[in-house]
C-alpha cells in the first residue's frame, strides 16, 4: 500500500485559523454568548457540532439544535465575509506540487464544510473536482473521529495505516492515532509543539515550507 499524505486544511495549508476564530466569536456574540477568543481557538479544527457543545459546556449553557444550526450558519457567513484575503501558508502550494512530482499520493480532509472550504482551496490552488478533497459534508463524524482521513485514504486507493496525517491541531493528531496513521504537527495554526507531541505527533514543523525542507525525514524516496 502506498503511504498517503493526508492534509488538514485550515492552519495546515491555509492561514485561516484566526478568521475562523473571529467568525465564531462574532456568531456566538449574536446569540448573547460572550467567550474569550482563546477559548474558541482551543477548539478550532474539531467538528462544528462538537465544537459548539464543548464551548457551551464551558460557559455552562444548555443549547438546542436550532441554535447550534443557526450558529453554524452564521459562522460560515461571517467566515466568508472575513476571508477575502486568506492566503496559503508559506510553502503550501510548493509542497503539494512536490508531492505530485514525486508521485506521492496526497489528499485534503477538513472538518469544514464545502461552503467555507471552497475559498481556502482556491487560495492554495486545489480544484476539489480534480484533487481528492473530503469535507465535513461527506462523512458522518468529523475530527477528532478519524472518518475524514479514512475516507481520503480510501479515495486515494490506500489506507490510513502507516500514512501521514499532517495537521495543526490536537484534533488532527488524535484522529491520526485512531486510524493508525502517523501524525505530523505544524505550528502554523497556533497550537504549541508540546501539545501536538502529547497528542501523538511524531514530528513537528513550523509550517508547510519547513516540512518541505525536511521532507526526506518522512517521505519514502521511492514507491514500491
Ligand atoms: Mg486545522
TrEMBL record:
GO molecular function: hydrolase activity
UniProt entry tagged with the keyword Repeat: no
KW Hydrolase (keyword) present: yes
Superkingdom of this protein's organism: Bacteria
Swiss-Prot/TrEMBL keywords: Hydrolase
Record-linked InterPro entries: HAD-like_sf, HAD-like_SPP, HAD-SF_hydro_IA, HAD_sf, PGP-like_dom2
PANTHER family linked: FRUCTOSE-1-PHOSPHATE PHOSPHATASE, GLYCEROL-1-PHOSPHATE PHOSPHOHYDROLASE 1-RELATED
Name of the protein this chain belongs to: HAD family hydrolase
Organism: Sphingomonas sediminicola
Higher taxonomy: Bacteria, Pseudomonadati, Pseudomonadota, Alphaproteobacteria, Sphingomonadales
